[in-house]
Specification:
The chain is of the alpha/beta class. 40% of the residues lie in helices and 13% in strands. The chain has helices spanning 3-14, 24-29, 46-54, 69-83, 104-113, 130-135, 147-156, 179-187, 203-212, 233-240, 264-274, 289-298, 322-345; strands at residues 35-37, 58-62, 89-93, 118-122, 139-144, 160-164, 194-197, 216-219, 247-250, 258-261. The protein binds flavin mononucleotide.
Length: 347
C-alpha cells in the first residue's frame, strides 16, 4: 500500500467511529474504547482480532501463529476483509530462545506490505524491528513487565508501552510486582501513553486503571473462551469452569516465568522444576507449543499442553461473542466510574 493510500485508508477507518472514552491510546490507534486484546499465541487469528476491532477496541494477530509466510499474509488479508477495512494490529513476540526469532523481521515486512501500521512488540526490546516500523510511519506499543524496561522502550522511541504485572496470562516476566503497583510506579517516569495489563477481566478494574492514569488496558485471559476464539469447545468449557485460583506460574527458575492453566501438564512441569530441571530440553514435549496447539486447542484435550492463562479467567463465565464481553466490560466500567464521580461530586 502506498503512503497516500494508507493515509486515505486510515482516515476512512477512523471516520465513522467517534472516540467514546478518549485517551491518548484511543487517539493513537483510532479506536473507540481503550480496550486492547493482547496478541495470544495460536488464538489471535483473523476472526478473533476482527471481532475485537469491530467491537471498538484493538486486537493483534500473532505473527508467530502462522506456519508459513503465505499463511500469515492470508491471515492479514482475511482480517482486513472481516474488519471491513478498519485498522487492526500485529503482535511480534521475540523469544528468549534466539533461534526462535528467525523470520520475525520477515513477518514484519509482510505486515507492512499488507498495510498493517499498528504493532504490539513483546518478549525482548524491539531493537531489530524498530527501524522498519519507523520508516513505515507505523505505531508500535511495546509490552514489558518491568518499569525500567518500559522507560528503556520510551527512550528507544516507541509510541506507547504496555506494562504487565505478575498476574498476566502467558509470560509475565521476572518482575514479582502486580499490575496496579507497576502502573503507579511507571506513571511517575513515563511521558508516553501507558496501557496496563495482567489480571484485568472486570470493567471496574478498567475504571480503576483509567483513574490511575493509564491510557488503556490490555486483556487476554478473559477473552480465551470467546465464541470467535479458534479453539475446541471442550477447552472453552474448561476455561469457563476455571476460577481465579485455577492458574499457576511455572519455569520461573529458568528466568522465563509462564503463567498457565493449572492442568495436568502444568503440574508435571512444576514437578520437574521442583525436582531440579533447569533447561528447556529437560521439560521435553511438555512445553512444546506445537503440542499445545494440536492436543489442547485443536483436539480439546485441555489437560495437555501449556495453556497460557491468568486469574482474570475467573471473570470469563460463558462462551460468548467478543462483542458481548466488550459490552459487559463497558457497562461495568461505566458503573464503577459513575460511582466514583458521584463520590467526588458529594465532597
Ligand atoms: C492464551 C494466551 C496466549 C498469549 N500469547 C501471547 C503471545 O504470543 N505474545 C504476547 O505478547 N503475549 C501473549 N499473551 C499475553 C496477552 O497478550 C496479554 O498481555 C495478557 O493476556 C494480559 O493479561 P491477562 O491474561 O491477565 O488478561 C498471551 C496470553 C494468553 C492468555
Amino acid at each position: 500500500m502506498s503512503a497516500n493510500a494508507y493515509t486515505a485508508w486510515r482516515a476512512e477507518a477512523k471516520r465513522p467511529i467517534p472516540p467514546q472514552w478518549p485517551t491518548r491510546i484511543t487517539e493513537l490507534l483510532g479506536i473507540r474504547w481503550p480496550l486492547l486484546l493482547g496478541g495470544m499465541m495460536w488464538l489471535s487469528d483473523a476472526r478473533l482480532v476482527a471481532a475485537m476491532v469491530r467491537a471498538g477496541g484493538m486486537g493483534f494477530i500473532t505473527a508467530r501463529s502462522s506456519r508459513t509466510d503465505e499463511a500469515f499474509r492470508q491471515a492479514l488479508r482475511d482480517c482486513r476483509a472481516l474488519t471491513g477495512g478498519l485498522a487492526f494490529g500485529v503482535n511480534l513476540t521475540l523469544s528468549r530462545r534466539a533461534a526462535h526469532n528467525d523470520g520475525m523481521l520477515a513477518r514484519l515486512h509482510i505486515a507492512l506490505e499488507e498495510g498493517v501500521r499498528i504493532f504490539e512488540t513483546a518478549g525482548l526490546p524491539p531493537t531489530q524491528l524498530l527501524p522498519a516500523i519507523r520508516e513505515a510511519g507505523a505505531v508500535v506499543i511495546h509490552k514489558c513487565a518491568h518499569v525500567r524496561h518500559a522507560v528503556a522502550a520510551q527512550n528507544m522511541g516507541v509510541d506507547a508501552v504496555t506494562l504487565v504485572g505478575m498476574e498476566e496470562g502467558g509470560h509475565p516476566g521476572s518482575n514479582p510486582l502486580p499490575t496496579f503497583l507497576n502502573g503507579a510506579y511507571a506513571l511517575e517516569q513515563l511521558h508516553i501513553p501507558l496501557a496496563l495489563g495482567g489480571g484485568i477481566g472486570h470493567g471496574r478494574q478498567i475504571a480503576a486503571a483509567l483513574a490511575l492514569g493509564a491510557d488503556a488496558v490490555v486483556m487476554g485471559s478473559v477473552f480465551t473462551p470467546a465464541l470467535e476464539t479458534p479453539a475446541h469447545e471442550a477447552y472453552k468449557r474448561r476455561v469457563v469452569a476455571t476460577d481465579a485460583h485455577g492458574t499457576r506460574a511455572v519455569l520461573g527458575s529458568l528466568g522465563d516465568t509462564w503463567r498457565v492453566l493449572d492442568n495436568d501438564n502444568a503440574r508435571k512441569v512444576a514437578a520437574l522444576e521442583q525436582a531440579g530441571a533447569r533447561s528447556y530440553p529437560e521439560f521435553g514435549d511438555l512445553i512444546s507449543g506445537e503440542r499445545t496447539q494440536a492436543l489442547a486447542y485443536q483436539a480439546g484435550q485441555h489437560e495437555e499442553g501449556m495453556l497460557s492463562m491468568g486469574p482474570a479467567v475467573g471473570f470469563a463465565r460463558a462462551v460468548e461473542p467478543v462483542a458481548g464481553i466488550v459490552a459487559r466490560l463497558q457497562r461495568e466500567c461505566a458503573e464503577a466510574s459513575g460511582r466514583f464521580q458521584r463520590m467526588l461530586g458529594s465532597i
